[in-house]
Amino acid sequence: MDLWFYSIRIYWWRVLFLMSIFQDYLSSMLDCPPTCSCSQTEIYCNKSDNDRFFPLLALQDTGSNGTNVDIKELFKNITSIHIENWTGLQTLKDVDMELYTGLQRLTIMNCNLKVIQPRAFAQNSNLRYINLSKNPLTTLSWQLFQNLQLAELRLDGVVFECGCNIRWIQLWMQRGEAGLHTQELYCKNEDSQIRLHNMYIQKCDLPEISVSHGSVLVTEGDNVTCELQWIWTTSA
């Protein structure tokens, strides 16, 4: 009986060992960007780079004897991407991150990021942490984050243009969402900077609409005139 259990244990140890080797082989099929360091779950780029493109793992040439591998699964294993000091990175495109479906943490910090396209995070529903600090962003759409359950959104050092486009950030700060209430955020109003918390722009919020009517007896088919009133709420 002891010999049987011993044989079973040896068998499973061999299976696990072969699986680990095979996983390492699959991971080695993807080349890390030159100025980055990579593991099976992380891409870390903190060296100065003027590359304009988002870092993408490149598929190595495995030759004619290459195995049939689901490349999407390899990208899905990446849970963290850190990019810092990439001065050439100005736009985050809709397609840049669509393969990283398992991504949980994204940092694009101290780069030259100016534009994030509307569907940049459409395939990244697992994102919980985003750091866009110290980038020359002037606006940021709430639609980028509408399908995410963010625990933290870092915007330190970003100076937005004051206006209705960033009213949602002010509201999130007031509600304590995504850790924004702990940050000192600013926006630019003409030639001066003000704290985003103090931004006041009229008619940013949706109006309150009410329909007033009296007790009117009408016959089916008659015309009825309604008086529509709307009230713009103001908030500092």
Automatic annotation (TrEMBL):
It comes from the Eukaryota. SUPFAM superfamilies: L domain-like. It holds the Pfam family LRRCT_2. The keyword Signal applies. Residues 1-28 form the signal peptide. This is Growth factor receptor NTRK leucine rich repeat C-terminal domain-containing protein. Residues 161-205 form the Growth factor receptor NTRK leucine rich repeat C-terminal domain. InterPro entries: Leu-rich_rpt (IPR001611), LRR_dom_sf (IPR032675), NTRK_LRRCT (IPR031635), SLRP (IPR050333). Keywords: Leucine-rich repeat, Repeat, Signal.
